[in-house]
Amino acid sequence: MLKMKEKLNENDSIVNLSTEKFGNLHIKKKNIIAFDNGVLGFEDLRQFVIVNIEECLPFEWLVSVEDPLIAFPILNPMPFFTDYNPMKSLFDLAPLASNDKEDLEIFCMVTLGNSPTDVTINLKGPIFVNMKNKKGKQCVLTEDYYSLHHPLLRA
Question: Residue 94: phi, psi to the nearest 5?
C-alpha cells in the first residue's frame, strides 16, 4: 500500500515515499520539482522528484510524489545526441521562472526494452527542469525530425 507522510527534521522536512519499484524513499522536500501542468498523460500529478539509483545509471527516475506508483525512466539526452537542440524551440521560459537557459537541465523519457538495442528515447517531448527553483515543464517539439521512440543505441 502506498503511503506518503511528512516528518519534520531539525534541518529539513522529509517526505517518505513508499514505492513498489524502489522500496521506501526519503526525499528532502526541497528537492521536489513542481510541474504546473503535470507531464503528458499525467496532468493531474504535479509534484515529482528525480531519483538516482546507482545500478540504473545513466538512467534516472522521475517519480510522482502524489502517486509513487508512477515512475518514468529518464535520461539526459545530450551525451547521446550531441546535435539535439530542443532549446531552439523553447521560447517561453516563464513557467520555469528562468531567463537563463543555463539554469535548465534537459531530460527525456525512456522506454526500456528487453535488450539495449530495444531502448528508445522520447526526443519529441523533452522535460526541462530549473534546478535552482525546482520548477519543471514538459514540452512538445514541433520539428518532424524528433521522434517519440528514437532508438537510444544503434543496432
Answer: -55, -40
User: 513557467: which residue's cell?
Assistant: 95
DSSP-derived secondary structure letter, 55: G
Distance of CA 10 to the CA centre of its chain: 29
Distance, CA of 152 to chain centre: 17
Provide the strand spans (E) within the chain: 4-8, 13-19, 23-28, 33-35, 47-51, 60-64, 71-75, 104-111, 120-121, 127-130, 135-138, 150-151
Cβ distance 59 to 74 under 8 Å?
yes
Domain spans of the chain, in order of start = 4-151
Tally the C-alpha atoms within 13 A of residue 137's C-alpha that lie toward its C-beta: 18
CATH superfamily label, 4-151: BH3618-like (2.30.290.10)
Write the pLDDT tens digit of every residue in 10-46.
447 999 999 888 999 999 999 999 999 999 999 999 9
Q: What is the pLDDT of residues 33-81, one digit of tens each?
A: 999 999 999 999 999 999 998 888 899 999 999 999 999 999 999 999 9
